[in-house]
Design brief:
By secondary structure, the protein is mainly alpha-helical. It contains four helices and no strands. The longest helix is centred in the last third of the chain and has 54 residues.
């Protein structure tokens, strides 16, 4: 029993060490990932329409005039693009417009323009949604890093509790006698 407790303590101590190392690395990578998303979005210079603009849906008025630099802003802009694509295509998806264009013998100029608009809009929307998802994953990585640190503390404390205790053996049995316990 004593040997298995010692082995368990060593394994818990090693796990604690691994978690202590992995936790801060994950937090760093999560923050670094957010910075990368922010840098890439900023470089694109995507700006929401000004307040009061007819091209800005009412539910996105809070974003008026803002530059897209975060995941939530990217998602909001993607939602705005979706509204514009649906308006331009009469509510049809790219695949529906493309099928209609091909069925017309690829000669209908209106369907060709709608097809191009839908393709470009859905491509932009997909890229922005990818940025949003990457942003959200960074929060997961940061959260897992914090969890790893917490688990490292718990595992370390448990390993410490399982550590074999040193017992000091007295040199003579007389030291163990207490005057209050002896009856004469």
């Amino acid at each position: 029993m004593r040997k298995s407790r010692g082995i368990a303590g060593i394994l818990l101590a090693l796990a604690a060490l691994a978690l202590f190392v992995a936790g801060p690395i994950m937090i760093y990578e999560g923050v670094h990932g957010q910075n990368q998303v922010r840098d890439q979005l900023t470089a694109q210079k995507i700006v929401f329409p000004a307040k009061g603009s007819t091209s800005l849906p009412a539910n996105l008025a809070a974003y008026a005039g803002q530059t897209v630099t975060t995941g939530p802003q990217a998602k909001a802009y993607a939602d705005m693009v979706e509204v514009h694509v649906k308006e331009a295509t009469g509510g049809k998806t790219y695949s529906e417009v493309s099928a209609a264009y091909l069925a017309s013998g690829s000669k209908d100029a209106t369907l060709a323009a709608q097809r191009q608009t839908a393709f470009m809009g859905e491509s932009l929307r997909g890229s922005l949604m990818g940025a949003y998802q990457a942003w959200e994953v960074t929060y997961l990585v940061i959260g897992l890093g914090a969890l790893f640190i917490g688990l490292g503390i718990v595992f370390g404390a448990t390993a410490n509790a399982l550590r074999p205790q040193r017992i000091k053996v007295p040199q003579s049995p007389e030291v163990l006698r207490h005057a209050e316990l002896t009856t004469s």
